[in-house]
Amino acid sequence: MPSSQALALVSLSLALLLCCTSPLLAHAQTPATDPATDVCAALATDDACHNVPKALRLKLIGIPTILVSSVIGVCLPLFAKSVPALQPDRNLFYVVKAFASGVILSTGYMHVLPDSFDNLNSPCLPEKPWRQFPFTTFVAMLAAVFTLMVDSLMLTFYNRKKTGQDAGAPSSAAVANLESPEPEAHWHTHGHGHGTALAKPDDAEAGQMQLRRNRVVVQVLEMGIVVHSVVIGLGMGASQSVCTIRPLVAAMCFHQMFEGMGLGGCILQAEYGTKMKAGLVFFFSTTTPFGIALGLALTKVYQDNSPTALIVVGLLNAASAGLLHYMALVELLAADFMGPKLQGSVKLQLICLTAVLLGAGGMAVMSKWA
To answer: Which of 54, 196, 242, 329 lies at a 20 to 30 A Cα distance from 7?
Structure first.
């Protein structure tokens, strides 16, 4: 399935999600009880850290800083392709990827999911239905299942498309090679054209299926990252609290750099062309700065404690958390740890596990400030 069709599918699904929750949005607009109104008014008027000029300066500093950190993180694996130690089949590549996967996993559990709980359990929302049902975990569960469905369907369409394009070609080539008496007529493995290493057509097809799998992983992971990056940037851009923005800039730089490294490693394994790589790098790098700029533009209109904002942001955070959990655990960590590379070395497994814990722990510590 082309990436444009995949993006259209996910966009349609998000639109359906918002349409399905529109009755809840309408219900949330009903006047709240007096205690809830008083609490929201107190939150809105709390000016202990409220400083518009300083907040604006921090946001203007944060936009280029986060942009540069994102570009560096996602491009490092791509430019490191020329370094022998960082080739996708080397041990160091798996260690770095495990660290970045830990960052992505911790982002979902320690940052995005708690934010969704805070939003949907806010006293600014009516108790019925928001505090009578765990909407955050429910939406996160649906998002994880939905991600599995999209992942599976995209891979199926990819394989059918490739099979239809290559119908008849592999079998005729195989017959020609089998009937050829010349020693040169054999299948070479990638990077080992020594005449003694042979690969069967089944191995070549398995390699192509794995390549298509890697490309599906990149597209789904990119979509999940884009959703929560825009939401985080929007909240940061609309905030006027210096106490919130200052630590958030540092945390976002750390987050974007190492999350970008994980995405960049997946892009490298997907073996995309230059244009596709540039597009993926561009969207990842600019989503958070775009969200900040959008928040700045909507400062006069957007109120982060309004019922509509709380519900929309809370549902998007919950969906993003479910998607990130699935991608980090299933597509990144489980795929590597259950693969032949790590299964062939207990030492490498332990090193990668340590890297996962370091990445997840570092991002968990950041949750103290952001």
So the answer is: 329
